[in-house]
Design a protein that fits this description.
224 residues; alpha+beta; CRO Repressor; 3 domains; four-stranded antiparallel β-sheet; 8 strands; flat
Length: 224
């Protein structure tokens, strides 16, 4: 029983490490080789929990990861990218469905219209282009006259606010994050004093950015 529990912990940890090694894009984009790698790796990781020994499994996983990383590098090359991922396919152009393309990609009209409605475009005439990406997602570009008004349309130059980053999380100072926004501990102490906050542990979350001198504090409930 102990051996099985130990193998479970080992293989679960191995699976998590492998997913970290192959990168976030494998989970997010799911290209053909991403999908195959995830399915096979999941299957192989589970094998030792049933019958297979651990060492052969670790060897197989090492080979799989090496293959995946090789395919990932090859996909950076334009020639191999077309082979491994394919190319974008236009499904709708100027409000008209490209029938040959949806047949070639094995997408039914029911699927296509469902995707359009899910993205908030129930009318074909509102769509300038709908493109099936190599990752399997459908990018929808609406007509210019129906898209939302942007600040640039109004000739307004917005002020850059920077990226808000947590500098206190669960009562603990995040010194690396402070450094990222060009701030330091003395600056934070001053802001705490200005906010009338005596103890760091009273702050559940606080964030600031490199573009402004402001900080936003979220305090714990007094009863906790």
């Amino acid at each position: 029983m102990f051996s099985l529990a130990l193998k479970t912990v080992l293989m679960f940890t191995t699976g998590v490490v492998i997913m970290r090694v192959i990168g976030k894009s494998a989970i997010n984009q799911l290209t053909p080789y991403d999908l195959v790698a995830i399915i096979i790796i999941g299957t192989v990781v589970a094998e030792p929990l049933i019958s297979t020994k651990v060492k052969p499994t670790l060897l197989v996983l090492t080979i799989l990861v090496a293959l995946y990383l090789t395919f990932s590098k090859l996909s950076l090359n334009q020639f191999f990218n077309k082979i491994l991922l394919g190319k974008p396919t236009i499904l709708i152009k100027h409000g008209r469905i490209i029938e040959d393309n949806i047949e070639e990609e094995n997408i039914s009209l029911v699927q296509l219209t469902s995707i359009l409605r899910t993205n908030g475009y129930p009318k074909l005439e509102d769509i300038e282009y709908a493109i099936l990406e190599p990752t399997g997602e459908v990018s929808i570009l609406p007509r210019a006259d129906i898209r939302g008004v942007t600040i640039s349309d109004l000739n307004i130059k917005p002020e850059c606010e920077g990226l808000p980053i947590g500098v206190i999380i669960d009562g603990k100072i995040q010194r690396k994050n402070l450094k990222l926004i060009n701030k330091d501990g003395k600056w934070l102490e001053k802001k705490l004093e200005e906010g009338g906050i005596g103890k760091i542990k009273d702050v559940i979350y606080a964030y600031a950015s490199d573009e402004k001198d402001d900080i936003v504090f979220n305090l714990r409930d007094k009863g906790k």
